[in-house]
Task: inverse folding
């Protein structure tokens, strides 16, 4: 394989924060980063301390971690909603602005950087299953830096969608499961035929 060439693009500092949180650099993380930056710009967002910003993701990919870092949309706060349709689409909502935008990837990825020959060889090795870990990492780096260098509109379509105020994360007291005794959110419990409230795993054991 042709000797790897140096990549001159410097990773943005806030993208490095996404890498640190996620654990590694990858193209999926870049997609989320690009969406977070675009949504912040057009909606005037500030990273959510509570549920001021809501992200509705139509997949469960690496992109979500960039949204968590930059937008403050997290599973724990309840302002990260995952509808796993396997689609590269994300809706970002601002409660204060009462606006929502949906971002969707336009097409299949095609490398457009300077190292086209090297990328093609790496891609072929990955497709055949013969790529080494080093080759896989190199391919991800080439793809990530290529994506970071492109205009947003080359990658995603942007459309304002109808605003609907999302419900806030539900709060409910915990109660002991009538079977295993473990504390469980009361609204997640299931009533059995004998009137006991049990957790979902215990309810399935009786089926």
Result:
């Amino acid at each position: 394989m042709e000797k790897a060439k140096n990549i001159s693009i410097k990773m943005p500092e806030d993208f490095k924060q996404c890498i640190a949180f996620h654990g590694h650099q990858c193209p999926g993380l870049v997609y989320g980063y690009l969406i977070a930056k675009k949504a912040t710009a057009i909606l005037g967002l500030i990273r959510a301390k509570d549920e001021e910003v809501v992200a509705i993701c139509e997949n469960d990919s690496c992109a979500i971690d960039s949204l968590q870092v930059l937008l403050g949309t997290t599973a724990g706060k309840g302002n990260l909603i995952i509808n796993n349709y396997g689609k590269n689409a994300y809706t970002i909502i601002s409660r204060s602005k009462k606006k929502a935008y949906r971002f969707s990837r336009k097409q299949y990825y095609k490398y457009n950087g300077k190292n086209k020959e090297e990328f093609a060889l790496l891609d072929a090795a990955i497709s055949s299953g013969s790529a080494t870990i080093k080759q896989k990492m190199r391919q991800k780096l080439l793809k990530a830096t290529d994506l970071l260098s492109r205009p947003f509109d080359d990658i995603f379509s942007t459309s304002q969608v109808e605003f609907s105020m999302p419900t806030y994360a539900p709060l409910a007291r915990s109660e002991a499961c009538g079977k295993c005794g473990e504390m469980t959110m009361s609204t997640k419990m299931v009533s059995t035929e004998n009137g006991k409230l049990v957790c979902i795993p215990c309810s399935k054991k009786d089926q």
User: Anything to note?
Assistant: Residues 27-43 form the longest helix (17 residues).
